Amino acid sequence: QDRIVALMSEHVGGVIAQFDTQELLNVYYGYAKLPLQQLKPQQLVALMQRTTDLTPRFTPKDIAGTLWALGRIIHPRNGAEGGGREGNDGSGKETTATTMTSPEYYSVIQALQARGAEEIDRFNSQDVANSMWGLARLSVTPDPQLVHALQARTECLLEDFSPSELAALFWSFGTLLFVPKTTTLRAMQSQLGKCADKLDAQGLVNTLWASAKLHLPVSSSIRMVEEAL
Question: 83-110: per-residue pLDDT in tens?
């Protein structure tokens, strides 16, 4: 199986220039599920360059999906976060280091954020959650304008968020040390409280961890846990 994946990955490197937006997103999703050691830095850099070229054509799903996938590719799972890749043994460090120091890495992140700001009014709840989660994983300081726009979009879509999406938002805000405005925060807590019983263990851990990072009132977080148990 590893040999087949390696051959397919080599082939992808030769045809990246022909990919359209959907094909790019499919490849990102595939790469996000692979062990990092199977990805070659030059292939990932070429993929990011093609992404930057096509970003003006990206839909909200393309933007959010790419940020989410890059978050998984660049950083293996670590600590209370959820959604990250498991089982990385460190053998992909060369790919990560080479990618994160390349100009293509910063260019694609900037392009995705700019496009996200343009398309923010078309984001659904999953787009918001995936974008925030990806930005929190990418070891770059996100564009404050986009983060504030995502916060505003969160308020507009609050009743559409699933429990896992809300937990991912809490974790993302905690990781970025971005404290949402009071009205947004209260609305998020209220909405999460209504569906706390549907949160899994990871979601509960993420929410409590984020509450501590953001110095939120302990009582509200404990209430959510009690309602979930």
Answer: 433 334 444 555 566 677 789 999 999 9
